[in-house]
Design goal:
This is SDR family oxidoreductase. The protein is of the alpha/beta class. The chain has 6 helices and 7 strands.
């Protein structure tokens, strides 16, 4: 089992995270997935760990589960996150705390644990799922808290890519547009589709394909891959 590649995916119970779990399994990886409400899997090569990823003890349990069960951690996909769309003055202290706790704390604790393991192995890959709104704000989608927190995930990619380049660990980010997931009401889909130059919302598979490209591109590190239907190109 220690020769099989292992992916750890946060926010793995639905939407993009669930799509990533399925895709990595199709590619032969064992998977450890985390979410606050994730059921046990019947697949012997999937371990699901319930809990709030912003809690350092949960983050530690997720990585320890991967090492104890499968012997290693090859890839970490930091997919868990919250998106709170409000005008700036409408954000509450709870909104602020929630965004920082999940989007930044949920990255920081588990990534430290994963990179420690990857450093011992001499190889590894971390992918952060951010949002294209970090670089391409849109007046139709108020996103200050997402930009503040997901912007941190984008910025740290380059810093860590350089810090760990000589140690065999890569860091990249996928920056999606608006993706069809349970987070978005169906009646709002036409409005969201119109925000993309290609005229449609993204599908979960679009983001999954982006992450898998980065997974299979060993000479790519410190990269932001826009999966946003042309939003980053202009409008």
């Amino acid at each position: 089992m220690e020769t099989r590649k292992v992916a750890v995916i946060t926010g793995g119970s639905q939407g993009i995270g669930a799509g990533l779990v399925e895709a990595y399994r199709r590619h032969g990886y064992a998977v450890v997935a985390n979410s606050r409400n994730i059921a046990a899997s019947d697949d012997a090569l999937i371990r699901n760990v319930q809990g709030d990823i912003s809690d350092p003890s949960v983050a530690s349990t997720v990585i320890q589960t991967a090492v104890d069960t499968f012997g290693r951690v090859d890839t970490l996909v930091n997919n868990a996150g919250v998106f709170i769309a409000k005008p700036f003055l409408d954000y509450t202290h709870d909104d602020y705390d929630n965004a920082l706790r999940v989007n930044l704390g949920g990255f920081f604790h588990i990534t430290q644990q994963a990179v420690a393991q990857m450093s011992a192995q001499g190889t590894g890959h971390v992918v952060n799922v951010t949002t294209t709104l970090v670089e391409n704000a849109n007046s139709s989608v108020p996103s200050a808290l997402a930009s503040l927190t997901k912007g941190g995930l984008a910025a740290v990619v380059k810093s860590l890519a350089i810090e760990y380049a000589a140690r065999g660990i890569r860091f990249n980010a996928v920056s999606p547009g608006i993706i069809k997931t349970p987070l978005h009401a169906v009646e709002a889909h036409p409005t969201y589709a119109a925000l993309h130059p290609v005229g449609r919302m993204g599908n979960i598979d679009d983001v999954v394909h982006g992450v898998l490209y980065l997974e299979q591109a060993p000479f790519v590190t410190g990269e932001f891959l826009h999966v946003d239907g042309g939003q980053s190109a202009g409008n």
